[in-house]
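Researcher: Sequence recovery benchmark, item below. Answer with residues only.
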């Protein structure tokens, strides 16, 4: 990194202190799109408790730059999961939630600080309170929404695209050998789609013994596909590792996905198993347009447990680490990237809960690249005493969620990249 380039946080602000916590709360959903920037400003969505665990309320806010304050523009029923927020080139905001277990789409364009939303049911997707819903956009106004179908072996996915003119295309579905969740979507005109996801099934479904003290679901394979406009899925990469007696607790889980200006797919994923000596590592992989793995390399431990990758408006690569650091990337051979030493960022003492996820305004949200990047994250300490009882009631899995799901603050930061 040259001496005249010093990335820094230009402002960090508390948006809300009533963010929903626990299973499906605001600290959950690494794949979710939660912040966008348009010509009208920056916007974010979070969920509050509302009517309870599967009846939460979404709240859509925009920043009033003149007042330096966040203003609530709209609210509605969310269901269990945080909704996805996307933007179109004309500044229209699109929000997709699952109220009452049904996919619903809201849209509207902010006008003089106000927002009126229209809404409609999203056709062709799965019903239920655990849809693991995903959404994505391109910079031409094409959108896609996906749900994960019930069942672990085989698994299934349904998705539907909406073109830039506002028409829903025919819904598509696919059956895969095992359930895959936490999908990152990169739609194209005409209904084509690139996606990546993580295998997410119980250990015994894979024929594996549950390691002592480990969550009952294995996240052990990173996969990608190319979906044609008729729904035909062509497999891309598969990165996985089988348990061994010495290293029974394996992991391969997507933490971020990004398509660059050259059309390459970049993945940031967690890895653990015999290949890492049982240590948790963060990796960066690059996938070609033909779905072939071009490069795969571990990231510096100082980055943290999670990271986001993006580019600025000059094509420069950046890696935002959950340890509240940032690295600059230089292109190497076969799509690989060489990362600078991590540079600390000042968030005023705030940090994503349990080194959790930053949500970033990038092109898959409909946000163009710029010299800055906008992020939101869940932070803060909550009352942890009732968590085990609550999780047992809501999920039947007492004690399987760590404290990282309990973060009542929703925080915004803007980072100057260059």
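Model:
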């Amino acid at each position: 990194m040259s001496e005249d380039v010093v990335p820094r946080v230009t402002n960090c602000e508390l948006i809300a202190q009533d963010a929903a916590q626990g299973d499906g709360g605001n600290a959950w959903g690494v794949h979710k799109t939660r912040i966008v920037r348009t010509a009208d400003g920056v916007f974010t969505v979070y969920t509050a408790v509302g009517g309870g665990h599967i009846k939460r309320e979404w709240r859509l806010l925009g920043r009033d730059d003149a007042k330096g304050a966040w203003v609530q523009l709209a609210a509605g029923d969310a269901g269990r999961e945080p909704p996805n927020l996307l933007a179109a080139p004309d500044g229209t905001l699109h929000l997709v939630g699952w109220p009452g277990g049904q996919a619903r789409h809201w849209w509207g364009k902010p006008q003089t600080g106000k927002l009126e939303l229209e809404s409609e049911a999203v056709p062709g997707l799965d019903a239920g309170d655990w849809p693991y819903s995903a959404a994505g956009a391109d910079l031409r106004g094409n959108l896609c929404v996906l749900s994960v179908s019930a069942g672990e072996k085989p698994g299934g996915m349904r998705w539907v695209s909406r073109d830039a003119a506002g028409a829903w295309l025919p819904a598509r579905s696919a059956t895969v050998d095992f359930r895959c969740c936490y999908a990152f979507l990169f739609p194209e005109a005409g209904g084509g789609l690139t996606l990546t996801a993580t295998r997410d099934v119980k250990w015994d479904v894979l024929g594996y013994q549950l390691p002592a003290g480990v969550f009952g679901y294995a996240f052990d394979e990173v996969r990608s596909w190319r979906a044609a406009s008729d729904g035909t899925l062509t497999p891309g990469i598969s990165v996985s590792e089988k348990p061994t007696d010495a290293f029974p607790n394996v992991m391969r889980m997507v933490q971020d996905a990004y398509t660059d200006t050259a059309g390459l797919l970049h993945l940031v994923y967690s890895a653990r198993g015999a290949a890492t000596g049982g240590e948790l590592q963060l990796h960066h992989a690059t996938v070609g347009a033909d779905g072939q793995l071009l490069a795969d390399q571990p990231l510096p431990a100082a980055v943290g447990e999670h990271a986001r990758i993006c580019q600025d408006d000059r094509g420069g690569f950046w890696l935002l680490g959950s340890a509240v650091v940032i690295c600059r990337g230089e292109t190497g051979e076969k799509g690989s990237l060489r990362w600078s030493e991590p540079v600390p960022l000042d968030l005023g003492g705030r940090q994503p809960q349990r080194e959790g996820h930053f949500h970033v305004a990038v092109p898959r949200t409909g946000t163009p690249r710029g010299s800055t990047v906008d992020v939101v994250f869940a932070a803060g300490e909550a009352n942890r005493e009732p968590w085990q009882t609550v999780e047992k009631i809501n999920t039947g899995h007492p004690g399987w969620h760590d404290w990282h799901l309990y973060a009542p603050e929703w925080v915004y930061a803007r980072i100057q990249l260059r």
